[in-house]
Write a structure and sequence with these properties.
Layout (H helix, E strand, L loop, with lengths): L1 E3 L10 E4 L5 E3 L2 E4 L5 E6 L6 E4 L2 E2 L2 E5 L4 E4 L10 E3 L4 E4 L40 H5 L3 H7 L1
Parallel strand pairs: 1-4, 2-5, 3-6, 4-7, 5-8, 6-9
Antiparallel strand pairs: 10-11
């Protein structure tokens, strides 16, 4: 999770890939409250074979200076209300957001979120760093699931 508050004159990209062939950028949450337009940038012709997937941000994911990448299942329209405490940098989801819950793509080896909570919880992987808890998605307490089986 990356949070950057209001502009202080040194605002820049959240994640920058420069001459980074084969880089993989998965399941990050990035929120900027400054004027820099991009959350993730990949730059220079040496940056090839890059995969950028399942990222959640309020800014663009952009190629610069002849870089190439495969982008999939990224959401760049995050709103401040989606997060628990934005100004404190707490980018955990405040509620299930239809655009991101269970909307991510499968990534081999991706089994946990930022808090070491299992992915997926539900029918698919959530976009971003936080996997929203199954009990909150369904309204069923996890303690009752064992009794229902």
């Amino acid at each position: 999770m990356l949070y950057h508050g209001p502009d202080h004159g040194q605002s820049d990209v959240g994640i920058g890939l420069e001459s980074a062939p084969g880089a993989q950028v998965y399941n990050n949450t990035i929120y900027h409250e400054h004027s820099y337009p991009n959350a993730i940038e990949y730059r220079f012709a040496a940056t090839t074979g890059v995969t950028i997937s399942n990222n959640l941000s309020n800014r663009a994911i952009t190629s610069r200076q002849d870089a190439s990448a495969t982008l999939a299942a990224n959401v760049t329209t995050a709103l401040p209300t989606w997060f628990r405490n934005l100004s404190a940098g707490n980018l955990h989801l405040a509620s299930p957001i239809a655009e991101i819950i269970d909307k991510g793509i499968f990534i081999n080896g991706l089994t946990d979120d930022l808090d070491k909570e299992q992915r997926p919880q539900g029918t698919g992987i959530d976009i971003g760093a936080d996997e929203y808890p199954l009990s909150s998605k369904t309204g069923i307490s996890l303690s009752w699931i064992g009794l229902l089986l």
